[in-house]
């Protein structure tokens, strides 16, 4: 049996993103910061392509291998992924280009789950607060340097347990999730950061401002089984800030839906040299986007 050590579960509902503390965004070892499928939401049997943000403080790049977790959590498990998959079992290796499992809505959604020999019947999965269901996906650094991490692929399942009238209204109003986009990131002391070249920063506190399009805050509809009704909602968008050196005044912030901006103060290290920044944007339905930058700290 393959035991997964140092494993981290990414994305919102069961997440290892840092808390709002002062130094949680400091990265000193290689780490998988984000994983996403393209498109952000797909039906069972649809083609999908997986992408990963593998952050290395030394600036080197890397690729990942992917696997689906085929075992849903039981009613006693409180982790985002079943203990069986966390232990390295019930994993199905897939390529970068894959297909959403055809039984995803039974194993991880509202349909009747398959029964396992010798085990009591399982109950269907509950949706997350946005009404979504997710297939766990394991990303493993091909070099074996960064710890493996689970992310979640949103899967579109038909509404279960609703009246025909509600079902048809839901089908008509539902809009599949899209990934957010990053327009640009600016430093108050140096202007727009470039992904293709290093930006010179003085060794003093500077404000970083991230901009996303206002349509990143997508409206969506949620079904409430308690009162058999549909409700309109709008996504929230969160930013996680990471650096190989230096400090942020907060490791995570939310994007203002009125302006499409999020800000944080970053203090580069006192020593001159190169540091790296990684910025991950996540919406509340599981979509994500990221950018990575190099900065050069000017000698004092």
Architecture overview:
The chain has 300 residues and is mostly beta strands. The protein has one domain. The protein is 6% helix and 39% strand. The protein has helices at residues 83-86, 104-107, 164-173, and strands spanning 8-9, 31-38, 41-42, 47-55, 64-69, 91-94, 97-99, 133-141, 149-155, 184-187, 191-192, 199-201, 206-211, 219-224, 229-234, 237-243, 247-248, 252-254, 261-267, 273-283, 288-297. A hairpin with a 7-residue loop joins strand 8 and strand 9 (149-155). The longest helix is centred in the middle third of the chain and has 10 residues, at 164-173. Mean pLDDT is 89; it is low at 1-6 and 11-23.
Number of domains: 1
What is the average of the pLDDT values? 89
The biggest beta sheet is recorded as: 6 strands, mixed
**Alpha-beta classification:** mainly beta
Q: How many runs of DSSP E, i.e. beta strands?
A: 21
How much helicity do the residues have? under 10%
Whole-Å distance between the termini? 53 Å
Percent of residues in beta strands? 35-45%
Gross morphology is: globular
Question: Oligomeric state of the chains?
Answer: single chain
**Order of SSEs:** EEEEEHEEHEEHEEEEEEEEEEEE
User: Radius of gyration, rounded?
Assistant: 20 Å
Number of helices: 3
Poorly predicted regions:
1-6, 11-23
